[in-house]
Amino acid sequence: MDVVVTGIGLVSALGNLMSSWKGLVEMRSGIQFYQPFSCVEPKPIALIEQQPSEILTLTRQVVADAIEDAGLESPLFDCGIVLGSSRGNQMQWEKLAAGQGEMSNWLNTLPNVAAIATAQMVGSQGIVLAPMAACATGLWAIARAAELIRSRQCDRVICGAIEAPITPLTLIGFERMGALAREGAFPFDVDRQGLVLGEGGAVLILESAELAAQRNAKIYGRVLGAGLTADGYHVSAPEPESRAAIAAVQHCLERSQLRPQEIDYIHAHGTSTQLNDRNEAQLIQRCFSDSVWVSSTKGATGHTLGGSGALGAAFCLMALQEQIVPPNVGLRELEFELAIARSAQTAKLENVLCFSFGFGGQNAIVAFSR
User: Fold this and answer.
1) Is there a single domain that holds both residue 264 and residue 313?
2) Which DSSP category does 241 fall into?
3) Distance between CA atoms of residues 148 and 41, nearest Å
4) Active-site residue numbers?
5) The whole model's pTM is what?
6) Which residues cross the membrane (predicted)?
7) Whether the Cβ atoms of residue 272 and residue 183 lie closer than 8 Å to each other
8) Cα atoms in the 13 Å half-sphere on the side-chain side of 202
9) I need a surface site. Which of 151, 197, 202, 238 has the fewest CB within 10 A?
10) How far apart are CA 73 and CA 60, in angstroms?
C-alpha cells in the first residue's frame, strides 16, 4: 500500500515551513548568540523567539499548521498519532526540581506530553504512540506511522517530533561532554567545532494513497521505506565501522525497492561534531557514488535533537516538490570527498534519503519519492 504525505507543519529558528525553506535556500541561519540562563555563558543557539520555547506551545502550533496544510478539520476520531521527543517537557520538570513550579502540573512533565496533547487537540480515539529514540526520534516516528498505514491499522496518521531542549541541564550537559560549538554549526567542515542546539520540529500528515485520492488531497511525496537499527556499542560515540548504520541503509533501500544509484539526494544528519560527520561521510562513501547530492541543514536550524529527523524529512519533501537540493549552510572548507551542496542546487530529484543517528547508537533512515 502506498503511503503519501498530504500535510506538513514545521517550526524552526527560521520560522514556519515556508519561511524556513526560503531561508534555507537563501543560505540564512537562525543561529545567534544568546544567554537564556544566568548560570550558562552566552552560546550560539537556534531559538525560535528571544526566549526558550515551551513544547506544548510548539506542538499545538505545528500540528494546527499540518492539519490546515492537509485540508483537514478536527475532530479526526480515527487518526493515529505518533509524535515523539527526546526531551519531552524537560523545562517543566527542571522547574519542579528547583521548586519553581506547581506540583499539580507534574503530569505535564511526562515524555508523552506532546502526543497526548495532539490526541486531545484533534479528538483522536485511535492509536497514540510517543517514541523516544534520541536524535533518531523524528524518523522513527515517521517510519512507525507508515507501518500503521501499510498494516491497515490506520488510514491516516499525524507523525513527527517536537523539541524544546533549551534548558540549563541540556546546555550544561552537552557543554560538559565537550559537544557544543563555540561559534556556530559548520557541518562537514574541516574546522567544525561541535553542535549548536536548536528548537523546533515538524509534523507530517500521512495517509493511504487511496484515502488521499478520495478527497483529492495534494501530495508532497511518498514514504517508501525505512531502516532502523542500533549499534549496541556506546552511550554516545558511534560504532567506528558503522556496521549497524550501513545495515539500516541497506534495509531501507531493500524495503523501498531502490538501488543505491537511484538515490538523488541525501539529507545528512550532519551534526558538525568530529565523530558524527566523519562516520557519516565514510558511510555515504561506502554505500553510494561520489555524485549523489548531500547536505545537512543544521547550520541553518541548529540541532533540534529528537526533532531533527522530522525537520529533515520535511526538507526532503520540499526538495522533491521544488526540485531543489537545499544547501549545507555553514560550510567553509570541506573535509570529505562528498558532493556537498554549497548552495541551493536545481536538480532532478526522484528518490531521496533522510539520515538520523542518535546517542546510544540509534540509526534511522527513511526514503521518500516524488
Assistant:
1) yes
2) T
3) 45
4) 135, 269, 303
5) 0.96
6) none
7) no
8) 32
9) 151
10) 14
List the beta strands (DSSP E) in the chain.
3-12, 15-16, 32-34, 43-45, 80-84, 128-129, 156-163, 200-208, 221-230, 265-267, 293-295, 324-325, 339-340, 345-346, 351-358, 362-369
Residue carrying C-alpha cell 553542535: 195
19 has pLDDT over 80? yes
Among 186, 214, 242, where does a domain finish?
214
Is the peptide bond prior to 187 cis by the omega test (within 30 degrees of 0)? no
Output DSSP code: residue 165. -
The CATH number of residue 103's host domain is 3.40.47.10
- Do residues 183 and 288 share a domain? no
Tell me the CA distances in angstroms from 301 to 10, 23, 213, 218, 295, one per residue in order.
Answer: 12, 10, 34, 27, 13
On whether residue 221 sits in a domain, the answer given is no
Residue 238 DSSP one-character state: P
Residue 81: beta bridge partners? Answer: 128, 158
Q: What is the total count of domains within the chain? A: 2
Query: Would you state the cell numbers that stand for residue 274, as one nine-digit string?
Result: 568530529
- Burial of 257 from C-beta contacts in 10 A (0-12 / 13-18 / 19+): exposed
d(CA 347, CA 342): 14
Per-residue pLDDT at 324: 98
Residue 84's domain spans which residues? Answer: 3-214
Q: C-alpha grid cell for residue 73?
A: 478539520
The DSSP 8-state label assigned to residue 303 in this structure reads B
Distance (Å, whole) CA 147 – CA 121: 23
Q: Give me the residue label for grid cell 528548537.
A: 199
